[in-house]
Amino acid sequence: MDGQATVFIDGEAGTTGLGIRQRLDALPVTVRSIAPEQRKDAGARRAMMESVDLVVLCLPDAASREAAAMAAEIAATGGRAPRLLDASTAFRVDPDWVYGFPEMGAGCAAQVAGAARVSNPGCYPTGAIGLLRPLVEAGLLAPDTPLTINAVSGYSGGGRAMIEAHEHDGGPAFLLYGLGLEHKHLPEITRYAGLTRAPVFVPSVGHFPQGMIVSVPLHLDMLAVPATGGDLRAVLADFYAGSDRISVAEAMPDLSAETLAGTDLMELRVHANESRRQAVLTARLDNLGKGASGAAIQNIALMLGLAAPAPRAG
């Protein structure tokens, strides 16, 4: 790419947009912005899109679809259309978009690097897919296994209203939600974990700003082949060997969700009781780091042909 790449964050005032803007300081790019009073001006946004190399969409789903349609119209009318990275759930299972999880398998980073449109993964799916996909691919976990995924996140992932409820009003100590069992992250978890049966997904929010734990309980006797907790750990360790952001750590008797807040890291663990033939898989990450802005920076670097910055490690 000739000269310094240019990036526009459409929705930079939101939580994810602010996080991406801060992290972009680690990349040799020029960030362009629209004046606050023009953020809803379609003409100004279109002109900005045509002037940059990459647009990061940090918008609600409907607004992201409108922005993507605007970029497609630019291309269709012979204009200079930018590449797109979308942080919403709008395109995560769209076959015309590349799912931006570079560590998800061989060739995934190259697919992101060559894509015109990339969808940034969700925070909960990053943990769930990170745990389950390697086991499905290795044949240890059958795709139709009945699974339950439990997760707890800091309140910063809930948007401005939830943040204000916690920071100004005290917020609930613990909130179980999504009990209609139709959470918006289920489709991408199911597809990219390689599952044919949708898991029961039970998310929750705690009264802390950042951090997340995704956990999956397993009966080892329900695995597709006889295996121990050590076998599961070995598969995960081999899958992520060489990653500077995802590590497979030793089991612990307890875990705090806040430990990796402020980092771009994710820790995977297998906590097993062989005598009971039970295990709990856990993924610990920052919902705003590897679960959002940190992943976006990885994808931006790949899409622009830049070296990825070292991950924030606290």
UniProtKB/TrEMBL annotation:
<feature type="active site">
    <location>
        <position position="123"/>
    </location>
</feature>
<dbReference type="InterPro" id="IPR010136">
    <property type="entry name" value="AGPR_type-2"/>
</dbReference>
<dbReference type="GO" id="GO:0051287">
    <property type="term" value="F:NAD binding"/>
</dbReference>
<dbReference type="InterPro" id="IPR050085">
    <property type="entry name" value="AGPR"/>
</dbReference>
<dbReference type="GO" id="GO:0003942">
    <property type="term" value="F:N-acetyl-gamma-glutamyl-phosphate reductase activity"/>
</dbReference>
<keyword id="KW-0055">Arginine biosynthesis</keyword>
<dbReference type="Pfam" id="PF22698">
    <property type="entry name" value="Semialdhyde_dhC_1"/>
</dbReference>
<dbReference type="InterPro" id="IPR023013">
    <property type="entry name" value="AGPR_AS"/>
</dbReference>
<keyword id="KW-0521">NADP</keyword>
<dbReference type="GO" id="GO:0005737">
    <property type="term" value="C:cytoplasm"/>
</dbReference>
<comment type="pathway">
    <text>Amino-acid biosynthesis; L-arginine biosynthesis; N(2)-acetyl-L-ornithine from L-glutamate: step 3/4.</text>
</comment>
<keyword id="KW-0963">Cytoplasm</keyword>
<dbReference type="InterPro" id="IPR058924">
    <property type="entry name" value="AGPR_dimerisation_dom"/>
</dbReference>
<dbReference type="InterPro" id="IPR036291">
    <property type="entry name" value="NAD(P)-bd_dom_sf"/>
</dbReference>
<comment type="similarity">
    <text>Belongs to the NAGSA dehydrogenase family. Type 2 subfamily.</text>
</comment>
<keyword id="KW-0560">Oxidoreductase</keyword>
<keyword id="KW-0028">Amino-acid biosynthesis</keyword>
<feature type="domain" description="Semialdehyde dehydrogenase NAD-binding">
    <location>
        <begin position="6"/>
        <end position="112"/>
    </location>
</feature>
<dbReference type="GO" id="GO:0006526">
    <property type="term" value="P:L-arginine biosynthetic process"/>
</dbReference>
<comment type="function">
    <text>Catalyzes the NADPH-dependent reduction of N-acetyl-5-glutamyl phosphate to yield N-acetyl-L-glutamate 5-semialdehyde.</text>
</comment>
<protein>
    <recommendedName>
        <fullName>N-acetyl-gamma-glutamyl-phosphate reductase</fullName>
        <ecNumber>1.2.1.38</ecNumber>
    </recommendedName>
</protein>
<dbReference type="InterPro" id="IPR000534">
    <property type="entry name" value="Semialdehyde_DH_NAD-bd"/>
</dbReference>
<dbReference type="Pfam" id="PF01118">
    <property type="entry name" value="Semialdhyde_dh"/>
</dbReference>
